[in-house]
Design brief:
Helix content is about 45%, strand content about 20%. The chain is an alpha/beta fold and about 450 residues long. A seven-stranded mixed beta sheet has the order 3-4-5-6-2-1-7. A hairpin with a 2-residue loop joins β9 and β10. The protein is flat and about 80 Å long.
Amino acid sequence: METICAISTAYGTGGIAVIRVSGSESISVVDGLFTGRHRLSDTPANSIRYGQIARDGEVLDEVLCSVFRAPHSFTGEDVVEIACHGSLYIQQTLLQWLVDAGARMARAGEFTQRAFLNGKMDLAQSEAVADLIAAQTKAEKDLALSQLRGSVSNELGVLRERLLHFTSLVELELDFADHEELEFADRSELKSLAGEIARKLQALVHSFRTGNAIRNGISVAIIGAPNVGKSTLLNALLGEQRAIVSDIQGTTRDTIEDTIVIEGILFRLIDTAGIRETSDTIEQMGVERSRQAIERAQIVVYVSEPNPVPSLQGRELEGIKGTVIEVLNKCDQSPITNHQSPIIPISAKHGDIESLKRELVRVARASMTTEGVMLSNARHYEAVSRALEAIVRVQQGLEDGLSGELLSLDLQDCLAALGEVTGQITNQEVLSNIFSKFCIGK
């Protein structure tokens, strides 16, 4: 394969920058620019050499070169990682010199794509690399690291291997179709296996809601009547004036979204338009979007004013599927009467919202158990869902006494869907789409 190069550290000026070079000629390419006590070509694997990068008598920088030899490297190829000073001029000049020496600039995600193609990791693990780089919270990091270590791949690999064995036996029967009495695949054992696989796939499908929340943030819809302080609460949670605040009812006419991290948990806050009957066409559209946001939200913060303490009722309950946290705002303006303990008193205007933050974290942690294997990638969720549908058809076919030929079709569909997750069955278009979303240098 061609030798490729790219800056692997973040763009910009810094103390140190790392430029990665990978390919069969990577060591010789860098050797042409490197001057030290030892040539890189004579350097053992997993070693670091100190020296200078120079060309035509011009010394560019003093560097450290880490040498990794195939197949024991990230990409499975010979790799040199050059640690230079973080000057933009040094980084760009070094890249230019490497290209002049025979390397080419790497495409987005090409290093990780080569790791996949060279069998260093499967496709699910490759995608976890991008998730790990993009992780903003500890929960995201832990989930991505678990998947990088093969949690999803191993779980699906075991299921696929067992299913593949039975599929082979069923297809073997088809080769002896003239002998109808021959049955290589025990139907009762296949029924038991299909049931076990269906249960595990169902658990994985259900885990996506939690995994997706960890990856993209737990959705929190702030709802309530007009003018109760929803936008003020959003601003208080974010610590900035994100939403316009006014005494005029109907000021918020569309949903406003932003994110915040509380105690390592990412929340996606949605300030909604006040839900009320109105003849204003624009406000009606805002109310409808609010209802849609409420249906999608995992947590609903219902904001009201004290005295008398209101409760959720009527149309306000429609569409709520998430956990409801009832909040009494403006508690600094008047004493609270009839206060019930589940209702949290706050003053968004004065930033007195710590009790609400604690409750958000408590509810989030209760729903975000990270035990067991968990899906967080939409592509994996779609493929596993199709695998589940196929194995359910196998179960139904066994109940109906279908022939091995028909069972084989559904078994193959299930195997294919599981194989798509790990990349055992894929195509170039899918690979290009996945790796194009990576950053350059990874």
